[in-house]
Amino acid sequence: MIYDFMPVSFIDFPGKIAATVFISGCNFKCPYCHNSYLIPIREGIRSEKDFFNYLKKRANLIEGVCITGGEPTLWRGLKNFIKNIKDLHFSVKLDTNGSRPQVLEDLIKGELVDYIAMDIKAPIEKYGIFLKNKKDIDNIQKSVEIIKNSHIDYEFRTTVNDKLLTLEDFEALADWISPAKRYALQRYKYAESILDKEKSGIQDCDINFLKKIKEKLNGKFGEILIRE
Ligand code: SF4
User: Fold this and answer.
1) Where would I find the Radical SAM core domain in this sequence (predicted)?
2) Distance 107 CA to ligand 1 centre (A)
3) Which of 124, 148, 156, 220 has the greatest CB tally within 10 Å of its CB?
4) Ligand 1, from 29, 35, 73: best to mutate by most atoms within 8 Å of Cβ?
5) How many angstroms does the Cα of residue 60 sit away from the middle of ligand 1?
6) What phi and psi values does residue 139 have, to the nearest 5 degrees?
7) CB of 26 closer than 6 angstroms to any ligand 1 atom
8) pLDDT by residue for the chain (228 residues), tens digit each?
9) Domain locations in the chain as residue ranges
10) How far apart are CA 4 and CA 70, in angstroms?
C-alpha cells in the first residue's frame, strides 16, 4: 500500500519532473537498503486520495510519477493505481527488484508503464545476500528478459558497495545482462536508516571504484551512468 509521496523530484524519473510515491512491503533484505522502514507493510502516512488531490493540483508542474518502494509489484492495488495515474495523462516510471515478472509483463502489455528501472543486485551466484527466498532468482532472470524484449524505455542499475561486490562480480553481472541499453552504477552512501551496518559498512563507497567498473564494462551497454 502507499506509504507516502515526495511532491517533486528532479532525479527519480530521467528527463521528467516527477512526484515519487513510496509503496511499503518488500521481499528482499538488501543490507544497504535506505528505505528499510518500508520492508514491512505499513500504514501509510498519506493516502491514495491525498496523492491524487496533489497530482491534480500540480498537473502544470509534474510530468510523471515514479513508483518506488519497498517493492511496488507486490502490491495488489498497483495496476489500478497506475491506471488512475494514466487517466490523468502522466507518464509512469516503475522501480522494481524484478521478483514479479508476471506483473511487469502485464503492465508492459497494458501500456501502463513508460520506464522501468530494475535493480540488478549482484551476479546470480551472489544474489543470496539480498534475497529472503532463493526461488526469486528464476523470477529475476525472467524479468531481465521481459524488460529487454519490451519496447519501453528502461535501465538496469546496481548499488555499488565494495564491501559486498568485487570488480569480478561486476564483470560476471555484465556478462549475464548485457547487451542492454542503459546500466547505472549507483554509489552506496551510508545513512542511519540502512538495514545492516555491519555488512554494508559505514563509509560511502569510493567513487574511484565506480569509475573502475565503468571502464571495465566499457562496450557492454548502450550507456553506463555513474550516480553519485
Ligand atoms: S533496497 Fe532491497 S530491501 Fe530495500 S526496498 Fe529495495 S529491494 Fe527491498
Assistant:
1) 13-220
2) 21
3) 156
4) 35
5) 32
6) -60, -40
7) yes
8) 899 999 999 999 999 999 999 999 999 999 999 999 999 999 999 999 999 999 999 999 999 999 999 999 999 999 999 999 999 999 999 999 999 999 999 999 999 999 999 999 999 999 999 999 999 999 999 999 999 999 999 999 999 999 999 999 999 999 999 999 999 999 999 999 999 999 999 999 999 999 999 999 999 999 999 999
9) 2-227
10) 11
